[in-house]
Amino acid sequence: MKKVLAILALLLGLAGSAQAARLKDIADVEGVRGNQLLGYGLVVGLNGTGDGRMTDFTPKSISNMLEKMGIRVDPIAVRVKNVAAVMVTAELPPFARPGSKIDITLSSLGDAKSLQGGMLLFTPLKGADGNTYAVAQGPVDLGGFSVEQGGDSAQKNHPTVGTLPQGALVERSIPFDLFQSKKVRIVLRKPDFTTMTRVVTALNTRIGKPAAVAIDSAAVEIPLDARGQFDPVALVASLEQVEVEQDVGARVIVNERTGTIIMGEKVSISRVALAHGNLNITIRQENDVSQPNALAAGQTAAVTNTDVSVGEDIKALQLVGGEVTLGDVVQALNSLGATPRDLIAIFTALKAAGALNAELVVM
Questions:
Q1: Domain end residue (candidates: 124, 153, 170)
Q2: Which domain holds residue 40?
Q3: 232 in a structural domain
Q4: Which of 101, 171, 191, 287 can pair with 217 through a Cys bridge, CB separation 3.0 to 4.6 Å?
């Protein structure tokens, strides 16, 4: 537990110095997005680990497949254990062209025990509009195994979910002209008015004129001038490299099941008296004035002195002064060896009392 609190205090210290991030790391160009694909297929060649008799749709699928090949078989007569019905999922990346290959994931739909050693048969992958955009086929890469012999069994990873790296071939691209409107719109992944203001300033500095205009807290629009229309791809590539300091709201995220606590740098605690179990904390913050000696160089400046102490007696906690940062409390509890669950209980109580100046997210 001490190690967890030490890491937490270190993260709070590192968060004190905000760093700029590239625009491409916090925003996306509107329209540049992937599309989900879905298909239903059969995995054959399994070593007796396929779907059993309780799965009705697998024999029907086998019968339909054979009928397309000129062989008529009654589904009731199909009794095989080396075939498994699977759902195949993939994401068609933006600007994918016919002939490109994409990764796919397949998951058992019936009661198959393992897809180890199987081969996925020709499977069309369709989009939300019902059109086929890719086809998948190939050997299943399981990344694990499941064996059973003489009443003993061993299993590694999840044997009923597999992948096919580069296992699908793109047959159709999604038509989309990114620069048809003669403007580029960039959308923040986490909308924020302060961050958007900084983005607009940084973009206009890079462009050299006030061209970027904020639409709202999420989107900024840049028109394509004569130079941008000539090479819009180079313009977008240049704008993606612009560095922006992202403004993050004060937030505390706690997970009571795992004892995980994540805090932002702007989290602070107002004046409050708090006691938790046999732990009590005294936090004092005093404002003083630092004045140089007579005839000495220097300037008079305001100085804030913060004193944090933690004890394990039964006295009530006393807090004097203004606001203190959450880092001061964490360091005090860290020195005592309080557990993350103690911190979670304290933060929850602080939020209920209105003393935690941050959003509390309980997972």
A1: 170
A2: 35-170
A3: yes
A4: 191
Same domain, 283 and 329: yes
Question: On the CB side of 178, how many CA atoms lie within 13 Å of its CA?
Answer: 18
pLDDT in single tens digits along all 363 residues of the chain:
444 444 444 444 444 445 688 999 999 999 888 999 999 999 999 988 899 888 889 999 999 999 999 999 898 888 889 999 999 999 999 989 999 999 999 999 999 988 988 999 999 999 999 999 999 999 999 876 666 665 566 666 778 999 999 999 999 988 888 888 888 999 999 999 999 999 999 999 998 889 899 999 999 999 887 665 678 888 889 899 999 998 888 888 888 777 777 877 777 777 766 666 666 666 566 666 666 666 556 666 666 666 666 555 544 444 433 556 666 666 655 655 667 777 777 778 778 888 778 888 887
48 token code pair: 């007796």
Q: Are residues 164 and 41 in the same domain?
A: yes
Domain count, the chain: 3
For tokens 């409050």, the residue is 272
Last residue of one domain, picked from the residues 112, 137, 170: 170
Q: Based on the domain organization, do 196 and 258 belong to the same domain?
A: no
